[in-house]
Amino acid sequence: VFKKILIANRGEIAVRVIRTCKEMGIQTVAIYSEPDRTSPHVLLADEAYCVGPGTSSKSYLNVIKILDVIQKCNADAVHPGYGFLSENCDFADSVQKTGAVWIGPSTKAITTMGDKMAARKLVLKTGSPVVPGTTEPLTSINNAKETAREIGYPILIKAAGGGGGKGMRIIHSENDLKNVISQAKSEAKKAFADDRIYLEKYLEEPHHIEIQVFADNHGNVVSLGERECSIQRRYQKIIEETPSPFIDYKLRLELSKTAIHITKSCDYLGAGTVEFLVDKHKNFYFLE
């Protein structure tokens, strides 16, 4: 059992991890930016360290500073939460080099599934349906225009290094492409310290369905069913409902089977989510 866990995150997720640790008798360490110094997660933790100013790239994405705190506080383990550095394999590897345990998927799984384009490549190899799009980052505006014409408008620009709607934009015509690409790259860089973006076909009025999976280190994977996550604002989920009123028994089995197959293909370990888009005809596509 760990004696002290550092939570490399903020807000609700950090609070939830801290509460669970307290119930288990484990000491907690919070990190915070200067404006967050009186936030709930800071006040609840046993120890708290400032890692930089308000800008995320200089605080919650400040790998060097966070690694310094891990060693300074003698944390046994690090919980990354979600977002920020949770899908950064270099950070996960660096944490383990300090001697602390990384509470999350292996660096191999993060490399494959945390990178949206790498995940698309893997899933295509498994034969599972994938939303039409690119598997390589956009390199120029001309490259983007050519790819968009092949896919067909409307298209979606997405960040390769993370989710949560950061760096995501809908484009309905070629006239908007240049400005939107610049904005998306800038936002992705600030949110994930990674400005790679890619294109994906925008499916209009789909259902956003997530399958919750758990995997152990013996190769066993189980599905806990679906969550309906279609009610969103600015690509952020507002309501998650289970079971989905749209999914029938047959489709639930197909989605779960596909999610388990994908999870096994990347040697995933721990709790995870496989996300799909389902159209009005109940055809489904891997999302991320």
Task: Provide a compact summary of the structure.
With 288 residues, the protein is an alpha/beta fold. It folds into three domains: 4-104, Rossmann fold, CATH 3.40.50.20; 111-117 and 121-129 and 205-286, ATP-grasp fold, B domain (D-amino Acid Aminotransferase, Chain A, domain 1, 2-Layer Sandwich), CATH 3.30.470; 141-201, ATP-grasp fold, A domain (Dna Ligase, domain 1, 2-Layer Sandwich), CATH 3.30.1490.20. The chain has helices at 11-23, 40-44, 63-73, 89-97, 107-114, 116-126, 141-151, 177-192, 249-265; strands at 4-7, 27-33, 47-52, 77-79, 101-102, 155-159, 169-171, 197-201, 207-215, 221-228, 232-233, 236-237, 270-278, 284-286.
| CATH architectural label of the largest domain | 3-Layer(aba) Sandwich
Beta strand count: 14
Assign an overall shape. Answer: globular
Helix content: 25-40%
Can you count the helices? 9
Topology, please?
Elements lengths: L3 E4 L3 H13 L3 E7 L6 H5 L2 E6 L10 H11 L3 E3 L9 H9 L3 E2 L4 H8 L1 H11 L14 H11 L3 E5 L9 E3 L5 H16 L4 E5 L5 E9 L5 E8 L3 E2 L2 E2 L11 H17 L4 E9 L5 E3 L2
Parallel strand pairs: 1-2, 1-4, 2-3, 4-5
Antiparallel strand pairs: 6-7, 6-8, 9-10, 9-13, 11-12, 13-14
Helix pairs in contact: 4-5, 5-6
Protein name: ATP-grasp domain-containing protein
GO molecular function: ATP binding; ligase activity; metal ion binding
Pfam family, one: Biotin_carb_N
